[in-house]
Amino acid sequence: MNQKYLKLTLPEFLQEISSKPSESFDGKEYSYPNGEYSEIEIFNYFEQITGEFKHNKVKQAIDHVDFYTELFFIPRIQKESLDIYIEHNWEIPSRKDGGILIDIEKMAEAINVPGMLSPNEIMDIISNECTVRHGKIINLPNCLESFVYVEYDYDQMFDKTHLTDFTLKNMQYAHDLLSDNLIPESNENIDLYEKNQTETMVVLHELGVLDFLVEKFGLRDNYAKFANVLRSFVDLNHDTTRRMLSALYSSDDSDKNIPTKEKNISRVHGELITLGLDTSKFKTQFNKLGEK
To answer: By CB atoms within 10 Å of each CB, which of 40, 57, 78, 102 scores lowest?
Structure first.
């Protein structure tokens, strides 16, 4: 078995496992030009660079993998998928909420331009006159094009265009491998670590932080991105966070991953009250009998 890949830096390795035969990076020759690595080889690489999956090194590696995935890999395969849909003249699916998104910050700047429609007029036009067809917004006034756009359902598109794509499989395996090994080094702290993950999510929920991020940045239904945003300022496991967000916003109280069980909320409320916070501002309100 060729062992040259074990000497690659992490950025080089990520480029290689996500590359296709027609692609090259910086004129360098990689050990596997077609990017087709086995899961064993990917496992061996990350086992080596993390010192057999030591917690701190795994955390650094997964941060790098997520950064590369979000900024380079996902945009590339999204473009590939969109190009395939356009080439075959397939109906391009949009998100289930209608697929029309508004960049709030750009809209706030635009409404100060003389002659621009008011926010209420803009929302009225988008809600009542605009539709998405073949990946484009129909009946959208030209003045709104700078901050109103379509959010395609790339997950659905990938099922049609990248179902057998080995680069997508490689990157998903790398992420899952690191996520599965992102636990405290001491086994006796695992239960406490998982408990803290849940309570952190409940705190963010009860203080309205999650809803603020959903409203401000349109993160609903894009739980992988949502989890990455939270992990940028809170120590959370990506996969655990993604599952909790999915359960929380699907409104399925029976989902085992939902963090806002009554006992968890009550415990978090008790901790927040000791900080002198006004309980009437919490997202979940209990009556005098302790019921929601």
So the answer is: 40
Cα–Cα distances in Å, from 184 out to 180, 231, 234? Answer: 11, 16, 16
CB of 50 closer than 8 Å to CB of 61: yes
DSSP 8-class letter at 38 = -
Reported as a single tens digit per residue, the pLDDT across 59-116 is: 899 999 989 998 899 989 988 998 898 888 888 887 654 567 677 777 777 777 777 8
Contact assessment for residue 146 and residue 16, using Cβ atoms and an 8 Å cutoff:
no
Q: How many helices (H) and strands (E) does the chain have?
A: 13, 4
Quote the CA–CA distance of 49 and 281 in Å, as a whole number.
46
For 246, the token pair is 């999915």
Q: How many CB atoms lie within 10 A of CB 95?
A: 20
In angstroms, the Cα distances linking 272 to 70, 200, 290 are 34, 12, 16
Q: How far apart are CA 171 and CA 88, in angstroms?
A: 27
Domain ranges in the chain? 1-91+154-182, 100-151, 186-283
SS3 state at 94: strand
Residue 131: HSE in the Cβ half-sphere, 13 Å Cα cutoff: 2
**How big is the chain by its Cα radius of gyration, in Å?**
23
Asked if residues 101 and 145 have their Cβ atoms less than 8 Å apart, the reply is no
- Tell if the pTM clears 0.70, that is, is over it: no
Q: What is the pLDDT of residues 209-256, one digit of tens each?
A: 999 998 888 887 788 888 888 988 888 877 788 888 988 887 667 778
Contact residues for 51 (Cβ-Cβ < 8 A; gap 6+)? 57
Structure tokens given for 140: 């959208």
